[in-house]
Structure formats: structure tokens, C-alpha cells
Amino acid sequence: MRRRHAAGLILALCVAASLVGCGGSDHHDAYTGAPKIVIDSDFNTMGDDGQLFAMTTQLMAQGKVNLLGLCVVTGNDWLLQEEADALKAVERMGVQDKVGVYAGANYPLQYDVASIRAQQAANPNGYFGAWMRPEPTQQSQLTPPPDGFATSTQLKSETAADFMIDTIKRYPNQVTIIEVGPPTNLATAVKKAPEIVPLIKQIVYMGGAMKVPGNANAVGELNWWFDPLAVRTLLQTSIPQAVIPLDVTNTVPLTETIFNQIVNPPTGQTAVTKAYASANAGAFASNTDLYDTLTIAYFTDPTYATQTQSAYLDIDTTAGENQGHVSVYPDAPPAGASPQKITYVTQFDNDRFFKLYVDLLTRPVPVKFQ
Fold first, then answer.
1. Residue range of the domain that includes 106
2. How many domains does the chain have?
3. Torsion sign (Cα): 45, 51, 56, 61
4. pLDDT digits (tens, 9 = 90+) for 261-285
5. Of 49, 127, 67, residue with least CA distance to 290
6. Is 26 contained in some domain?
7. CA–CA separation, 353 vs 331, rounded Å?
């Protein structure tokens, strides 16, 4: 058999392997150039955090975002439970080889258990997340997702804060933090490595209650109530920040129509729609609103927000009934408030958002990368 010239052989191999690329896969090319994000989440299987992750991985498959990692922090639940839910989520979506899970803080930067118990007693209808249940200390105490625990995916060895520091330094001025839990991990990163502050592209939060009552105590929204010192640490930086507060999420309800479109899609059920049905059964009957999922819509296209306001913000960090209360200063910041005006959303394009929401949550699973 006649020997081919080396260059000709390489060309032939590249042509033969064109479906996977020569020197890299088409998959990676589709999203590696997309806007880079890190999700920092008090994760749940298919509540708002789980929905956000499912939607984001579908957008990643389309090459619209580049999700660099999923960080978890105690908030909705205790860290150990959230880790298990997050590990299963990356397997469910089929992205365990692309998106690592990084364990973060199990407790807020500052907290007073006696005060928390008093606030729970004073606000019996409030939502206090992890503080409403015993803290698990071992695997046997965890609740499995409806489709079972992860079978092979493991936590990354790096902590969430260290992962954020390293990632922000690796991609200066390119990384947006989608902050949908108590921001303890990011505040820890900023305190540990303040040099990353000018390197963070932006933070997009779901958190806070600007001019509406809280959903934890009477004035505080859970994410910001849970660790107000972490929030204040970040508000006082120069990082560009935008907020999706309760003011707007209160106006985006989960209706029975939307629920049914997701759990009974014409294309057939998936692992996501089944988990969604299990996690959200009857939610529309209890005046449930949509929260964290609004952040990824806003990040990909800020025109989803049809009305916004900007102001200097501060938050009450003291233990007690004012914990988590956000002060809004339209004209000038007092000492301790944010040094820059921060945009917060007050109205969303619900019809347009729900089309995106239903579409992304009913797509094939595992995700299919372009």
C-alpha cells in the first residue's frame, strides 16, 4: 500500500472527522464564545433555582451563554441537601462534563439563631428557608430528587469562593455572576481577594424588596434577609449590579395554564417536566410567583424588563424585625449605602417571558448541543 504524504493524511483525517472537528468539537465552539456566567444558587431540584439551571443549560446548548460553573450556598435548604440536588441536576441535563458543582458556605457571614427563631415566631407565614428545617449531617438524612440521587457526578474540590476568584481572574471583565441565593459565596470571594472587584463584569441578583413587604420577615426577601451582611459587602463595591426584586416577581405568577403547558407538553414529557410536575404540583393554587428564572431572561436580553428604576441602596444587617430591609435613596447615598446607583426591575414583559420559560423547560433532555 502506497504511503500518503503526511499533510495529505492529516487533511483526510480532518475531513473524515468533520462532525467532531479537527482540534476541538463543534459543541464547545458553540458556547465558549458566548457571554460567560457563573450561577450562585441556594439550589433546589425543580423550584426556581432548578428551573433556572435547566433553562440556562438549554441556552448554553444553543450557544447563547457559557455557564462556567454552578455554586451552591445554604438558603432555600441546607448546603448538604442542595449539593445533592445540584449534582443530580447536572446529570439530568447531561452537562456533567461541562458544568462543575462547587460547594460554598453553609452559614451566613453573620447570624443570630435566637433572633431568627423570634422572627419566625413573629412571622408565622414567612419563608425562612433552611432555618425552617433541621440541618442534615449525613447522606441518609437527605431527600432524594424524584428521579434519584446522582450516580457518578462529584463535587469539585475547589470551594465556591475560590472557584469564583480563579474564574474571574482567568476571564477579567467577562464574567457575570447570576446571584440567586444569599450572596455569601461571592462576598467571601471579594473579602478574600478584593482585587477581583474591578474584574467582575456585573452581578444580576434575584433578591431584595424595595417598596413591597418581605416574604421572610415583614420587610426582608429571603435571599437578602438570609445574609444581609454579604449583600451590604457587595453593594458597597464598584461592581456593576442589577436587581430583580420581589417588587417585580410579585407580578409574575405561576398560573395553572403555564403549569399545564410544562407538565403536559405536546412533544412529550422529559426528566425536567416530570421533576417540575413533582416539585410544583398545586403551586399555582397557592399564589406562587416566579423568581430566579427572571434573571437569565434579563441577562440575555435586558428588554425583558419593561420598567426599571435606579437608586442608591443599603440594607439593614442588624438581627431583628428590620433584618434584610432595603433602603432606597433616589438622589444621594448616605454613609454605608452603595456608592453608585443600582438598577432594579419593577415590571417584566410577562407574555414574552412565559414563552421563553415554557420553551426552555420543555426542550429535549439531556440537552442537545449545537
1. 32-361
2. 1
3. positive
4. 999 999 999 999 999 999 998 887 7
5. 49
6. no
7. 32
